[in-house]
Amino acid sequence: MCRHLAYLGPEEPLGRLLKEPSHSLYRQSWEPRRQRFGTVNADGFGVGWYAEGDPVPARYRRMEPIWSDPSFADLARVVRSGALLAAVRDATEGCAAGEAAAAPFAAGRWLFSHNGAVPGWPRSVAALARSLPPAELLSLEARTDSALVWALVLNRLRAGDDGGQALTDTVLEVAAAAPDSRLNLLLTNGSTIAATAWGDTLWYLAEPGSSIVVASEPHDDDSRWQEVPDRTLLTADTTDVLLTPLKDPRDDMASSPTLGSARVGAPPSPEEPRT
């Protein structure tokens, strides 16, 4: 459910990243090529981007399909950014509709998106909801599984976790409470990207020292796109990409959540620190 994309690199017009590629996120709203669940992403969209000198991103979100919004075409033509996160939505059954339910979710310098679904929501994760401070529950933007997953991630970020650790711990916690959840999460603070592949597709295109795109699926036919294996955490900036395998809690509830990590192009090293 849904398609999303994050970018770090030289400033580009939003349209060059989201509309112009031959299989752009814009086109994926009606014609995704690799989406495993659902066929059309017409239940809203959003884009968040960073302006130079301002760590707090701007957002533009709507509840209608991205192709039906003429204002977005103008926005995408003139707004430039070196960091963004965007998503088109295919709503999970039982979740609320509306602009507030469209990713990216935001807090401070963070932008977040969830591609997937939590089966049995909301009952399956009721215990996890009770672990959150009441003020955070009352501050949920929408009555959706994605908004709750974001609240769990944000609670960890506020407690001092880095982006990769916050995503990892949240994915394993939700997967333990609601087995068969699909939890492809995407997070950026404008200088780094963290993402999980858990039940759906995830790809990246890196030009070391210049740019990185992390997306649900390739937005063009460039042969340099790399697929991220399922059950993996990706952390990246414009100079480095790190892939860390994740262990499904059903495999061994008592084991460590990670199996080791490896930088792309280097042999795996269990001792290598996460960035």
Report on the structure:
Residues 243-275 are annotated as: Disordered. The chain has 275 residues and is an alpha+beta fold. The chain has a single domain, classed as Glutamine Phosphoribosylpyrophosphate, subunit 1, domain 1, CATH 3.60.20. Helix content is 21%, strand content 28%. The protein contains 7 helices and 14 strands. The protein has helices spanning 14-18, 25-28, 70-78, 126-130, 134-138, 145-158, 163-177; strands at residues 3-13, 45-49, 58-62, 80-88, 105-107, 110-117, 182-188, 193-197, 203-207, 211-215, 226-227, 232-236, 241-245, 262-263. It has a 7-stranded antiparallel sheet with strand order 3-2-4-1-10-9-11. Strands 5-6-7-8-12-13-14 form a 7-stranded antiparallel sheet, covered by helices on one side. The longest helix has 15 residues, at 163-177. The radius of gyration is 17 Å and the shape is globular. The two termini are 29 Å apart. Residues 254-259 and 265-275 have low confidence and may be disordered.
Please write out the topology.
Elements lengths: L2 E11 H5 L6 H4 L16 E5 L8 E5 L7 H9 L1 E9 L16 E3 L2 E8 L8 H5 L3 H5 L6 H14 L4 H15 L4 E7 L4 E5 L5 E5 L3 E5 L10 E2 L4 E5 L4 E5 L16 E2 L12
Antiparallel strand pairs: 1-4, 1-10, 2-3, 2-4, 5-6, 6-7, 7-8, 8-12, 9-10, 9-11, 12-13, 13-14
Helix pairs in contact: 6-7
Low-confidence stretches: 254-259, 265-275
Question: What is the residue-mean pLDDT, rounded to a whole number?
Answer: 89
CATH class: Alpha Beta
* Distance, first to last CA: 29 Å
Please identify which CATH superfamily we are dealing with. Aminohydrolase, N-terminal nucleophile (Ntn) domain
Biggest beta sheet summary:
7 strands, antiparallel
Overall 3D form: globular
Count the strands? 14
What share of the residues does DSSP label as strand, in percent? 25-35%
Give the CATH architecture.
4-Layer Sandwich
